[in-house]
Write a structure and sequence with these properties.
The complex is a heterodimer of chains A (204) and B (789). Chain A is 28% helix and 42% strand. With 204 residues, chain A is of the alpha+beta class. Chain A is globular and about 50 Å long. In chain B, helix 9 crosses helix 23. The radius of gyration of chain B is 36 Å and the shape is elongated. In chain B, strand 4 and strand 5 form a beta hairpin. Classes of the chains: A alpha+beta (204), B alpha+beta (789).
Chain lengths: 204, 789
């Protein structure tokens, strides 16, 4: 009886124990392999942003489209149509609220560069790219959940940590949470993920 | 002299032992010589401004750092550029390379980031001007406020909101354009962008590393080690499609050292073979080897004399002094050939040759003695060196050498009788000679002195290509002019800097001025700005904040969303300081442009970088009321060239006067003095004519060679005049020809060198001797004979 109890306890401890460092690489490798044959991703998302600057939580709906390696469209459809599209380092921004559309060069916009770099890194499962500015830790394996913490103080000044949860098949991201210093956060829930579908050129 | 010879004849062994003792003493003295390689020895020490300019040029940002450009061959490779740059930076500072590279930066410091811009925006009150405040009017109208807040809403809603929150809270109405321009004005590398935290070029195909090294740029072997290590590291670390090039002073040190080594191997071989051939052909006596003791003794005596007179001997003096060995061997050659005539006893032959040799030495010593009045420390050392060396050469030639050689006649190489040849072809020779002198007189108006020290160093196509690439990719970071303002305190200096900037801005193209004034105005300027800011907002604040609150609430912004902006337009800002800028990650900008007394030993200084143009110099002088110092490599070279020109002109005049006076006293006739100066005239004339026709300028090195040509010309003139007037043959033509040939073999062979400095010495000697020798052997006899006929 006592032995069975100890055995069960050991199993529970193993279950509850954080993934050992030696397993992290294997998990990350799995993610990399799962993403290898993906050349395009599109999805809808719901964003919840809690900012001290706003009285209430901002809820937006939008769409994401990505064609590897670096074509990206990130747009909000509700409550206001806004967003940006990026291709070969050059992009276009729009904001229905102020009726504006303008072009930008990612190379001359260091903030956009960091943001876009990470968005591409998450969706491409590009661990090397993610590791440039963040440390990676596998928080759980089922489902796979990564914890990213900034390496660089300049990034750490506006992001405390990022949590990325992958779908069961590891081929797409299900949920992203960005926590900012001071308690503000952004949660992105991805739905209706479509992989390797043909995406129109004019999206970018 | 005959009496001295006879007195020493029975005491020959003692004389030789004493000579050996003197050589050993001199040798010991030479071993203790402390040689310095300080280029300051070639700067006129009376010209304080040149020294100050030279020191200032050394403070220029990037001058003493190595710039590494990491380049991607194509777009595919460019995606890995920033990773490659970071990896290379890490590898360069790895321990295994023994600290060759002490620090390598590839991006802004860790403290710099979006927070930097936010912090600068919080300092807007310290930067306010009537123009900047006027520009804000358009941004605070109700419509503009509404548009700004809608933009802010979209920004906060999007992913950029993560990084822009603090900025938007402080600057909801987009005042930030002016702040960005300010950072740009003080940016030492205005063409640069940031990608992945790495400095990259506008096209994203090049990354920049700025490296500091423990190796001094004058250390040629250290430079070689550094560059070899760089080559090895880049080969190991960089992936295919990415390469790295380094640009620094070490490239030049390595190239120069390698070139000089290769050149000296060639030249030593050629000159040794030529000298041996000349001695065997013309002297045909092993005893002639004793003559070589004379330049050795002269060199040691000169070196020891300088070391006794000065604490450090300039390496430049020793280098130039070696050139003077060409003169000291003359005296030995003349004495040797005269003593090997046979037919008279040695004492009588010595007495006869002693007069022209002594006169030649005296005139040459006077000519070099004039250098004691030079403004260049190295030239004054050269004067001491050469006078002591020539005195030793004279002593060895007339006192020691006669006792080392036997009286048996020398079998001379059959030479034409130049005197008879000159007589037969007198009209042609005189016409050609006077024609050359007239041409040279005409050419003196175009003498050009090149004070550009860099032009005397070797460069190569690879180095030029690397420098051009830096200029194309990153701008002319190493070629800008420096404008220095100074003051007793940092505050006073910043005030002067503000005035300077106000005068330059608007008159020079934007992006061409790098100034700290836009980022760190003087305290008094900041106080005035804060007052302007306060009065601007006094009446406008209530209305604006009301509109901001109303419009903000309509979009869902909280009551305190723009609290930082409210404080900005309400509460007095604190003054901005240099330390404050450093904490914002702007340390490189601040420390690159502020020169504190503890670093320079001078009053406080602030640098501004401008284009190296006359227009910029004029504007700087006007704006600072003549108080600013405008310095650039090109101007320094020009000013140094001018100083050298003045010094050389003074030397030439005084040397001619001094030599003329000595000759007048010795020869007692202006006509004879002029005759004796004929080889000098033809040598210098040939030099000027050829240099002007081929576009060669005088520089630090060939000036010394020109002095050699003048010294030799005087000697030959004196010897040949003595020959003509005494109408006796002491083998003078033989000795003059031999002396000229040995000088050509020893120094003219430097014309084969690839190194510019060595090459210019060689060419000068070659051309100079080509004029001096015919002048001595043909023109002087033709003119002298025409007087005697």
């Amino acid at each position: 009886m006592r032995a069975r109890f100890l055995f069960t306890l050991a199993l529970l401890l193993l279950w509850a124990a954080p993934v050992s460092p030696s397993n992290d690489d294997a998990v990350l490798d799995d993610l990399r392999k799962a993403a290898q044959d993906i050349h395009s991703v599109s999805a809808d998302f719901v964003q919840r942003k809690k900012l001290e600057m706003f009285d209430e939580v901002m809820i937006s709906k939008g769409r994401l489209a990505l064609v590897k390696p670096d074509r990206l469209r990130w747009e909000y459809l509700e409550p206001v149509a806004s967003g940006f599209a990026l291709k070969d380092g050059k992009g276009r921004r729009w904001n229905e609220m102020i009726g504006r559309m303008d072009d930008f060069d990612i190379r001359q916009d260091p903030v956009m560069q960091v943001i876009v770099d990470q968005l591409l890194a998450w969706t491409n499962a590009d661990m090397e790219r993610m590791r440039r500015d963040f440390t990676l830790e596998v928080a759980s394996v089922n489902p796979v959940q990564l914890m990213l913490r900034p390496r660089v103080p300049a990034v750490g000044s506006f992001i405390e940590r990022i949590i990325i949860r992958y779908a069961a098949d590891k081929r797409s991201i299900q949920h992203v949470e960005v926590l900012e210093p001071g308690g503000d956060f952004t949660q992105l829930e991805f739905q209706d993920v479509r992989i390797n579908t043909s995406l129109p050129e004019d999206l970018f | 002299m005959a009496r001295l010879y006879r007195a020493l004849e029975p005491r020959r062994a003692l004389l030789l032992i004493a000579t050996l003792g003197v050589f050993l003493l001199l040798g010991a003295g030479m071993l203790r010589l402390r040689v310095s390689e300080n280029i300051m020895a070639m700067l006129p020490d009376q010209a304080e401004s040149l020294f100050a300019d030279f020191e200032l040029l050394h403070q220029a940002p990037f001058l003493h750092k190595a710039l590494v450009t990491v380049s991607a061959e194509d777009e595919a490779a460019a995606s890995g550029l920033t990773t490659a740059a970071r990896n290379l930076a890490e590898a360069l500072t790895a321990d295994q390379w023994q600290g060759l590279f002490t620090q390598v930066e590839y991006g802004p410091p860790a403290e710099a980031g979006p927070g930097t811009l936010t912090a600068l925006l919080a300092n807007q009150p310290n930067y306010a001007t009537p123009e900047s405040l006027h520009a804000l009017e358009a941004k605070i109208s109700p419509d503009a406020v509404r548009d700004s807040l809608r933009r802010d809403w979209a920004l906060m809603n999007g992913p950029e909101g993560w990084a822009m929150k603090d900025l938007v809270r402080l600057d909801p109405l987009d005042f930030r354009a002016a702040a960005l321009r300010r950072i740009g004005t003080a940016n030492l590398l205005p063409g640069i962008r940031l990608r992945d935290g790495v400095f990259v070029s506008g096209d994203g195909r090049h990354a920049l590393l700025v490296a500091e090294t423990s190796v001094d740029i004058t250390d040629s072997s250290g430079s070689d080690r550094l560059l070899q290590a760089f080559k090895a590291i880049t080969a190991k670390v960089l992936p295919k499609g990415i390469k790295a090039d380094i640009v620094s002073g070490h490239l030049y040190a390595q190239a120069n050292a390698a070139a000089i080594k290769a050149d000296m191997r060639l030249i030593m071989t050629v000159s040794s073979v030529a000298l041996i051939a000349i001695f065997l052909l013309f002297l045909r006596s092993f005893q002639a080897g004793w003559v070589l003791l004379i330049p050795l003794g002269a060199l040691c005596a000169g070196g020891v004399a300088v070391s006794l007179a000065y604490s450090d001997v300039s390496g430049i003096t020793l280098g130039f002094g070696g050139v003077l060995l060409g003169i000291s061997v003359d005296y030995g050659l003349h004495a040797f050939i005269a003593l090997k005539q046979g037919g008279e006893n040695q004492a009588m032959l010595l007495a006869r040759v002693a007069r022209p040799v002594s006169l030649g030495a005296a005139t040459t010593m006077v000519a070099f003695g004039v250098l004691l009045l030079s403004d260049l420390p190295a030239q004054r050392q050269l004067a001491v060196f050469s006078m002591a060396g020539l005195a030793m050469a004279l002593l060895l030639a007339l006192v020691v050498l006669p006792h080392l050689i036997s009286p048996s006649p020398l079998k001379r190489f059959p030479l034409p009788d130049f005197t008879i040849l000159a007589q037969k072809s007198r009209p042609v020779i005189v016409t050609l000679g006077l024609g050359l002198l007239a041409l040279a007189a005409w050419q003196t108006r175009a003498i050009h002195f090149d004070g550009n020290l860099r032009a005397l160093g070797l460069t190569s196509p690879a180095i030029d290509a690397a420098e051009n690439q830096v200029r194309r990719t990153w701008g002319d970071v190493r070629g800008k002019a420096l404008v220095l303002v100074q003051g007793d305190s940092l505050e006073k200096t910043l005030e002067a800097n503000d005035r300077l900037y106000a005068g330059l801005r608007g008159n020079l193209p934007e992006g061409e001025i790098v100034s700290l004034a836009a980022l760190l105005p003087a305290g008094s300027t900041q106080a005035a700005s804060r007052e302007l800011w306060r009065s601007f907002w006094e009446n406008r604040r209530p209305g604006l904040l009301s509109v901001l609150h109303e419009q903000g609430q309509a979009l869902g912004f909280s009551e305190r969303a723009f609290e930082p902006f409210r404080n900005l337009v309400t509460i007095d800002a604190t003054p901005l300081t240099a330390d404050g800028l450093r904490t914002l990650g702007l340390e490189r900008m601040v420390d690159g442009l502020i020169l504190p007394p503890q670093r320079t030993g001078q009053p406080w200084g602030v640098l501004t970088l401008t284009p190296d143009t006359d227009e910029a110099a004029r504007l700087a002088a006007e704006a600072s009321q003549g108080m600013a110092r405008f310095v650039s490599q090109s101007r320094f070279g020009h000013d140094l060239g001018q100083a050298l020109h003045n010094d050389f002109n003074r030397f030439l005049l005084l040397a001619c006067l001094g030599v003329g006076l000595i000759l007048l006293i010795a020869l007692r006739s202006p006509r004879r003095v002029l005759l004796a100066m004929v080889p000098v005239a033809t040598g210098v004339a040939g030099l000027l004519a050829v240099m002007d026709l081929s576009g060669i300028s005088f520089n630090l090195y060939n000036m010394a060679a020109a002095i050699l040509v003048i010294g030799l010309g005087v000697d030959y003139g004196v010897f040949m005049l003595e020959r003509m007037e005494r109408r006796t043959d002491l083998g003078t033509e033989h000795a003059v020809l031999l002396s000229g040939l040995t000088t050509l073999a020893g120094f003219g062979s430097l014309a084969l060198a690839s190194h510019p400095a060595l090459n210019s010495i060689g060419l000068t000697v070659l051309v100079g001797m080509a004029g001096t020798l015919p002048g001595a052997l043909l023109l002087l006899p033709a003119l002298a004979r025409s007087q005697h006929d």
